[in-house]
Amino acid sequence: MTSSNLPFVVKRQQRSSAEIFRIDHAVIAGWTGRDPAAREKHIAELEALGVKRPATTPVYYRVASSRLTIDDRIEVSGRASSGEVEFMLLRSGGVTYVGVGSDHTDRQVETYDVTVSKQMCEKPVAPELWLFDDVADHWDRLTLRSWATIDGTRALYQEGPVDTMLAPDAVIGGYLNGAPLPEGTAMFGGTLAARGGIRPADRFDFEIEDPVLGRRIRHGYEVIALPLA
Predict the structure, then answer these.
(1) Least-confidence region, from 48-57, 68-77, 96-105, 112-121
(2) Model pTM?
(3) How many CA atoms lie within 13 A of 2 on its CB side?
(4) pLDDT the model gives residue 57
(5) What distance separates the 2 farthest-apart alpha carbons in the chain?
(6) Fewer CB within 10 Å, N or C, the chain?
(7) Tens digit of pLDDT for each residue in 140-186?
(8) Cα 63 from Cα 175, distance rounded (Å)
(9) Residue 100, SS3 per DSSP
């Protein structure tokens, strides 16, 4: 089993600390919409790209933990990939943390094998975490946003509250038949429909906002498209 060691700043309500987290497993939870209409909208926008609708929902895709990165640039094959903002749950030392990341995915590969498409690209994550216990009582107030920069123009790409996705206990519970999130596991919790449809970008920025405690976790990365021979 391979593992990744990533540095994060853990923001608690009263203090912050820099810590190294060992991540043994990375899981991308898909089709996690809490609202059937919103879930269907995301399924439909992917169907428009040729992606088959799932037989059941949610679906859990495993990717190599080494795909997680806090770097501010990634390299991809060609120009058929795009990012999408997702909340991240990380279990370490018996504690659950909340972060935010981008499930950057190769959309061309996704049309014939979703699992392989998830493995094709790095998964950028913000180098900051919150304690889940600090946000648990107002979880549904958290908001996700992303921006895509295309040909020099930055535009809002996604925006919405996390309550459009299944709650953390439901996302985790569906993974291993009700078992808790395993130690050393990072799980992405689902995404929002894209404004204007899914499309590649030169840069992707994303955040999770906690309006109750007045804070945000932000990150962004350049997308370097490598030529296809």
Answers:
(1) 48-57
(2) 0.93
(3) 8
(4) 81
(5) 53
(6) C
(7) 999 999 999 999 999 999 999 999 999 999 999 999 998 999 999 99
(8) 14
(9) strand
Q: Looking at the 3D structure of the chain, how many domains does it have?
A: 1
Domain span at residue 121 reads 4-226
Q: How many whole angstroms separate alpha carbon 189 and alpha carbon 177?
A: 16
Would you say residue 91 has pLDDT above 80? yes
Q: Which residues contact 95 (CB under 8 A, 6 or more apart)?
A: 131, 132
Spatial separation of the C-alpha atoms in residues 61 and 20, rounded to whole Å: 25
Residues near 69 by Cβ (< 8 Å), separated by ≥ 6? 6, 122, 123, 124, 125
Segment holding 170, helix H or strand E: helix 168-173
Q: Print the SS3 string covering 125-158.
A: ECCEEEEHHHHHHHHHHCEEEEEEEECCEEEEEE
Determine contact, residues 224/78, Cβ cutoff 8 Å: no
- State CA 68 to chain mean position distance: 10
Q: Enter the DSSP assignment of 178.
A: T
CA–CA distance, 42 with 53 (Å, rounded to integer)? 10
